[in-house]
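Input.
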Amino acid sequence: MRKIFIFKQIFMEGRQIMSEKEFKERLISLAGKTNINITDENAETFYKYMNLLIEWNEKINLTAIVEPNEIIIKHFIDSLILEKYIKDNDSIIDIGTGAGFPGIPLKIQNSSLKVTLLDSLNKRVKFLNEIIGLLQLDNIETVHGRAEDFGRAMKYRERYDVCTSRAVAKLNVLAEYMLPFVKVGGRCLCMKGPNVADEVKAAEKTVKLLGGEIMQTDTVFLPKKSGERTVIMLNKASSTQNGFPRNTSKISKEKIK
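Output.
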């Protein structure tokens, strides 16, 4: 029997802060300014996602961004910037996914994707499972664990077309976490802030030793002057050597030689 979910409306100081109609209009309009097309049906799904995110955030710390207008831009549209780099039927692993970004927005937009959400905190994984059930998403799974452990496991190693991450780590660290998950010929999509030229240059040797190539670096400006996002795409040119990824302490402290 299909489970029936009842949504709480969002209120602040006794006032509803955003109706479904207003939310859908803003999401569709603002996404359009970034050349992202969101259907009315998908906008409705995003509204449900936002409601549950705000509700759960009162119980566990999922995000510091809880105002609906900011959720629209800094979570949903920001995640969908990656849409143009992804093909129909791609298999994707989103590492350090947190509250599901960018993995769940990408899945909402493209139901053909096969998505794995990896996070190290079990409370967040429970939230993700709730969202997946609520939104009735298919071909999406959650994994509770650390990227350095699952990147060495044969079930996950070099099995994906795409690896995504919005982590704040430097590119040489991200590359070691991400590249082991990707098939040869696949790609890693690293979401960073502005001014990454020096970071990209410093990571070139590490990326190459891990079997990757830095293919392109794109800058996208979020709507409403909400900042800029840099997307760094790594191509998987050859298999990653055994022994990588290393444990977290070595990744962060010892450069690959």
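Residues 40-57 form the longest helix (18 residues).
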